[in-house]
Amino acid sequence: MKIDPTFRSRRSNVMATRGMVATSQPLAAQAGLSILQAGGNAADAAVAAAAMLNVVEPISTGVGGDCFALYYDARTGAVTALNGSGRAPAGASIEAITKLGYTKMPTYTGHTVSIPGAVAGWSDLLERHGRMSLAEVLQPAIWTAEHGYPVSELIALAWRTQEKKLRRDPDWQSGDLDNGPPQPSGFELLIDGRAPRPGEIMRIPTLAETLRGVAAEGKRYIYEGEFAHKLSQHVQRYGGWITPADMAAHTSTWDEPIWADYREVRLYECPPNGQGLAAILALNLVEGYDLARMTPADRLHVCIEAMRLAFADAQQWVCDPRVHPIPLDRLVSKEYAAQRRRRIDPQRAAQHVPFGTPLAGSDTVYLSVVDGEGNACSFINSLYMGTGSGLVVPGTGVSLQNRANLFQLDPAHPNALAPNKRPYQTIIPAMTLYREGPFAGALHACFGVMGGYMQPQGHLQMVIHLVDLHMTPQQALDMPRWALAGPEAGLGAAEAGGLVHVEEGWEFGVLAELAQRGHHLAPVTGFARSLFGGGQIILRNPETGVLIAGSDPRKDGCAVGW
């Protein structure tokens, strides 16, 4: 790590030796840290922080969503991948959706609710890697949901965008053909029918009761019995298919992570149905360039073009591999990257990129934990599109995700809607290990960038900042970002590659040079900067064991250590 005197970061890195937690909300970071201080490890702290984020940021994450994790075991050097995402119910049907008049999946109806996998994921992560019980690590979240907490500023702003969805107002412009009846249970996540204001005390007693049930009975509380029946009835009321049998059938899976060697590190991602493949593909493409010696405009151009190609492949192939085979070995190979790299014109933006461009953003939470022994957990939990479907299971404080919205209605597409199938998932954790030299196999960084289709783009940018440009974690997170926009921006792949959002902070000369190469640029300022996601990075010095962490200034959070 070196400090670049030409770039002044907005805040200092946080450094510690006995453990570190970085999240998008300070109370969640402290919840994870308290578990480390009580003798828990990285897995225990990750679940504690995730549960607390359900309480303090319920408009992004929670029991009603999905999770993914990468876990590094310092003793064995092994990286394991947890897929805590749910599947479409057994009754899911393309024909049923098209008969309702839809040409693509609806956005917020009951049809978009897949089985929520988060709690099973929490439980399975602890069972395999943790030291503490689910009951122990949920205590901070239970207390906070019951007694209340002051809502942080950026979360309060995001909460306001979810009011009509939670209430199912008659004038709510959802884009769906039918919003269903008004939803009284949505008021459980509001104060007198409105979003809480910054600094206002928010209590969610119904969520506290749900978490108590999970603490007492484990994951069975969610997937069997009264909760599963309540959830099924509510989803069906809004057109969906979920039944108690679907809930009872849910299981997490442990997978082999996919990886790419890049310079002196190896990047690990969860395999499909997650979009971590896009980050692997993009990194393999840019490996063929000496990015550190490039001008900022040249480097930015190459990275944007590589990301376009990566998304084209990811959106064609990412699906549930247990239902539809994916040629993963071919896609992640260096030979395939060399072949695809020939499509990159160093002077012009692509005029056509097969299979489409990325879609809209979403809300998610990401957290990173490294304990004093060097174990690490890169963890992500999400509802998607804010509160997901916005359907709140009555009397539980649980908002349900809308991940099934990501299915395709073309029966021939690998990601086509089908019973008991997982959809394309945007949420992805990341991790890098040293791959050569005296510290080969040791943890390099535990990191992630939340935010829908920003995530693999963020992973690419963070790896380049850390490895090629030798930035510290906080410097890497503070740097201005870019993000490919999707078809909703009105510029498709055939029009010079589509729109590129650029954050305030880029030099005018760099942007002018990109525009000359054919890139359609859209500057973004203010609260809209949230589309660039929110990242957390913990870097570990393998020689001294010192943990160096940064937390994204675009979020309310922080890194805390001891």
Q: What does it look like?
A:
- The protein is an alpha+beta fold and 562 residues long.
- The longest helix has 22 residues, at 296-317.
- It is globular.
- It has a 7-stranded antiparallel beta sheet with strand order 1-20-19-15-14-9-8. Strands 7-4-3-11-10-2-21 form a 7-stranded antiparallel beta sheet, with helices on one face.
- It has 19 helices and 21 strands.
- Residues 1-7, 356-360 and 487-496 have low confidence and may be disordered.
Oligomer: single chain
Proportion of β residues?
15-25%
Question: Which strand order does the major sheet show?
Answer: 1-20-19-15-14-9-8
Distance between the amino and carboxyl termini: 20 Å
| Average pLDDT | 93
Give the overall silhouette.
Answer: globular
Major sheet attributes: 7 strands, antiparallel
Rg, rounded, reads 22 Å
Summarize the structure.
With about 550 residues, this protein is an alpha+beta fold. It has 19 helices and 21 strands. A seven-stranded antiparallel β-sheet has the order 1-20-19-15-14-9-8. It has a seven-stranded antiparallel β-sheet with strand order 7-4-3-11-10-2-21, with helices on one face. A three-stranded mixed β-sheet has the order 16-17-18.
Task: Show the helix and strand layout.
Blueprint: E1 14-16, E2 19-23, H1 26-37, H2 42-56, E3 66-72, E4 79-84, H3 94-99, H4 118-129, H5 134-137, H6 139-147, E5 149-150, H7 153-160, H8 163-167, E6 201-202, H9 205-217, H10 220-223, H11 226-237, H12 244-248, E7 253-255, E8 258-262, E9 265-269, H13 276-286, H14 296-317, H15 328-331, H16 334-341, E10 364-371, E11 376-382, E12 392-393, E13 398-399, E14 430-434, E15 443-450, H17 454-468, H18 473-478, E16 482-484, E17 499-503, H19 508-516, E18 520-524, E19 534-540, E20 547-551, E21 558-561
Parallel strand pairs: 17-18
Antiparallel strand pairs: 1-20, 2-10, 2-21, 3-4, 3-11, 4-7, 5-6, 8-9, 9-14, 10-11, 12-13, 14-15, 15-19, 16-17, 19-20
Helix pairs in contact: 1-2, 2-6, 6-9, 13-14, 13-16, 13-17, 14-19
